[in-house]
Write a structure and sequence with these properties.
By secondary structure, this protein is of the alpha+beta class. Helix content is about 35%, strand content about 25%. The chain folds into 3 domains: about 90 residues, Rossmann fold; about 70 residues, ATP-grasp fold, A domain (Dna Ligase, domain 1); about 230 residues, D-amino Acid Aminotransferase, Chain A, domain 1, CATH 3.30.470. The chain is built from 15 helices and 25 strands. α8 packs antiparallel against α9. The protein is globular. Bound molecules: adenosine monophosphate and glycine.
Length: about 450
């Protein structure tokens, strides 16, 4: 089957690899020359991923039958609506369905309207004065978010990033003054607990859950520093997480199924991978955000261990024929992102980066290229995450060790990595934190 892929990051490289493995002929569109994607593509086009007209004419010219869209930005501008109008099936949501991610107020209001569990207190504002009035009237900690898309970097949490009323208002004002996210501000009740990611395949109606993943959004070791797109993530061999039990997972899956049902009722049925970010609290899982796509890095954990045909799953998501015979291997995975120096604050880019794929494979690991580009025949870093290295093994401990061994085969003089991700010490801290909350 001829498949169009859109996006040039680590998540898309992992998806392209899974499509290729299951027999697809790949036609790739991306803004940067991702060498991993190019290697697997029959043809590729370098262009703005939001240039709907260009992407559509490339897809039509190549006669693709199915499309996979990685990032949220092209979804927001209606790339799926345009491709579907050309008769191309899409394993991704329409512009209306993608609002579940592109508008944080749409998501919270939908969850409220359909009485779905897991919602947090929230209020949204189109001006700073109203937000200030509201803030004066509450006595609990909140989180400040731009309503629109910010590439995972716009969220600030009281008690972590914002330590006074003044700091909170400064950030609210900054969002309005600089029009960050382009759609106003949402203030949410702060949930306390441990975060996990539950993703599901969706065909408009039916869902199939993927293994649980834990991402690490903070830039620096020990979970401190600014929020990022995600510094790394892990999955365990039983597809659960050491601090998330079967019941909590079931509750998260029920929330996602209810959202899928609600969207069908609203006349915007959801097709594609749906991403649920949850905070496990003492009162069960609470919704942090819902995304209209695979998580990045989370895709790099689950796609290498997917044993069923990803091409087949994408076709079924697009055509409303999903079945639950989706198999994942029982390996644990640990992904650590190599990111440019300064990432999260102000990245240094344009540094040469060397990746020894063979040596990485010999370590029981795999590498996915992300925001790198080829300039004058050399592979160089961009301003976003550079390459993801994923260790894989029957236990979490071995997977983490494989990842660390493999990281030695990525060389660049202006990068950093969160080495604590997937380590026994950090995982144990999460388990202890949940136990403390439960016993308090
Ligand atoms: P988001 O981009 O919405 O995933 O937010 C980035 C990070 O901010 C999340 O991964 C959480 O660590 C934190 N966060 C977002 N919303 C909340 C909330 N309501 N309560 C506590 N932490 C939050
Ligand atoms: N890993 C977080 C995200 O993809 O939004």
């Amino acid at each position: 089957m001829k498949v169009l892929t859109v996006g040039g990051g680590g998540r898309e490289h992992a998806a392209v690899e899974a499509l290729y493995r299951s027999g697809a002929e790949i036609y790739a569109v991306m803004k940067n020359a991702n060498p991993g994607i190019i290697k697997r593509s029959k043809e590729h086009l370098l262009c703005d991923e939001k240039d709907v007209a260009k992407v559509c004419s490339f897809a039509k010219e190549k006669g693709v039958e199915l499309a996979y869209i990685g990032p949220e930005a092209p979804l927001e501008v209606g790339i799926v609506d345009a491709l579907e109008a050309e008769g191309i099936k899409c394993a991704a949501p329409t512009k209306a369905a993608a609002r579940i991610e592109t508008s944080k107020s749409f998501m919270r209001e939908l969850v409220d309207k359909y009485n779905i569990s897991g919602n947090l207190g929230f209020a949204h504002f189109d001006n700073a004065a109203d937000a200030e009035e509201y803030l004066k009237g509450i006595d609990y900690e909140i989180v400040v978010k731009p309503i629109g898309l910010t590439g995972g970097k716009g969220v600030k949490v009281q008690g972590e990033h914002l330590n006074s009323f003044e700091e909170t208002m400064d950030y609210v004002n900054e969002i309005f003054d600089q029009n960050i996210g382009g759609a106003g501000v949402i203030l949410e009740e702060r949930a306390i607990g441990e975060e996990f990611t539950q993703m599901v395949f969706v065909d408009g109606k039916n869902i199939v859950p993927l293994p649980l993943v834990q991402d690490h959004k903070r830039a620096y070791e020990g979970d401190v520093g600014p929020n990022t797109g995600g510094m790394g993530s892990y999955t365990d061999s039983n597809h659960l997480l050491p601090f998330v039990g079967e019941d909590d997972r079931k509750a998260a899956i029920e929330i996602l199924q209810s959202i899928v049902d609600a969207m069908a009722q609203e006349g915007c049925p959801y097709h594609g991978t749906m991403y649920g970010q949850f905070m496990l609290t003492v009162r069960g899982p609470k919704i942090i955000e819902i995304n209209a796509r695979f998580g990045d890095p989370e895709a790099m954990n689950v796609l290498p261990i997917l044993e069923s045909s990803f091409t087949d799953i994408c076709w079924k998501m697009a055509t409303g024929t999903l079945t639950d015979d989706v198999e994942f291997s029982k390996d644990a995975t640990v992904c650590k992102y190599v990111v440019p120096k300064g990432y999260g604050v102000k990245s240094e880019s344009g540094h040469e980066i060397a990746v020894d794929e063979e040596a990485i494979a010999d370590c029981g690991a795999v590498v996915y290229y992300a925001n790198v580009d080829v300039k004058d025949g050399k592979l160089v870093t961009g301003t976003s995450r550079s390459v993801g290295v994923i260790g894989r093994a029957p236990t979490l401990e071995e997977a983490e060790q494989n990842c660390e061994k493999a990281l030695e085969h990525v060389k660049c003089d202006a990068i950093f990595v969160r080495h604590d991700i997937g380590t026994r010490a950090l995982v144990q801290r999460r388990v202890d934190h949940m136990n403390e909350l439960r016993s308090a």
